[in-house]
Write a structure and sequence with these properties.
- The protein contains seven helices and seven strands.
- The chain is α/β, with parallel strands linked by helices.
- The chain has a seven-stranded parallel β-sheet with strand order 3-2-1-4-5-6-7, sandwiched between helices.
- β2, α2 and β3 form a beta-alpha-beta unit.
Length: about 230
């Protein structure tokens, strides 16, 4: 299977890339910029060779996204999964009265419009059998468990869940699975050192969902990394 993973240079994106390669898949690892920050991916490339392609994929830059999609199409490459992982968390612990709206715009540009752009250009390549679109979401996007904090991140993830639901309806006759996945509070740059879970565990669970070793039974498309239904 060929997997496209955005935000692949660190955290959950890196662990999903490593796990997919370990399972024998090929990964197009999208990074915002090439450079020293991708050293861990270079190490994976040395180990796995042509099964790892490190590609420019800034999800806020539609021209960049379109160029990569065009390149893969010209190469005759099909995809089995699109994993929209790239995200930002800004304006933490900021009350609404002090919220900088530019931070909200930036969050939506990456967390919601980014996946929209990626799917817009790569859906045409999602033609492998039992293909998936995986949108990495968060329990913070649950309306029923809303809390007065992290406004840009939470609201953008709620909207991402809606996009997953709409997209599933759109592609249901093509055999494509669409899921919003809450990976858990993990020890990553975003989650911090106090987080209780390991991103490698989440990565393994997400790959099980992509490979359809686990089939969620849920009314909506919002689940955790084990396939358990999350509250909308």
């Amino acid at each position: 299977m060929n997997l496209l993973i955005s935000g692949a240079s660190r955290g959950l994106g890196y662990e999903m890339t490593a796990e997919a390669l370990r399972r024998g898949h090929t990964v197009i690892a999208g990074v915002r910029r090439q450079g020293a920050s991708n050293g861990k991916l270079v190490e994976l490339a040395d180990k796995h060779g042509v099964r790892l392609i490190v590609a420019d994929l800034d999800v806020t830059d539609e021209a960049c996204i379109a160029a990569l999609a065009s390149q893969l199409k010209d190469e005759g490459r099909e995809l089995g999964a699109i994993v929209n992982n790239a995200a930002i968390l800004t304006a933490r612990n900021t009350p609404i009265e002090k919220l900088d709206m530019d931070e909200v715009i930036k969050s939506f540009d990456t967390n919601l419009y980014g996946p929209l752009r990626v799917v817009k250009h790569f859906l045409q390549l999602l033609t492998e059998h039992d293909a998936s679109v995986i949108n990495i979401s968060s329990e913070a996007g649950s309306i029923s468990n809303a809390y007065p904090d992290d406004y840009p991140y939470s609201i953008s993830k709620t909207a991402l869940n809606m996009f997953s639901q709409q997209l599933q309806v759109y592609v249901k006759n093509r055999g494509i699975q669409v899921l919003s996945i809450h990976p858990g509070w993990m020890k990553t740059d975003m989650g911090g050192e106090n987080a209780p879970s390991d991103p490698r565990e989440a990565a393994s669970g997400i790959l099980d969902l992509i490979e359809r070793k686990v089939m969620p039974k849920t009314r909506f498309q919002f689940v955790d990394h084990t396939g358990k239904e999350m509250p909308i």
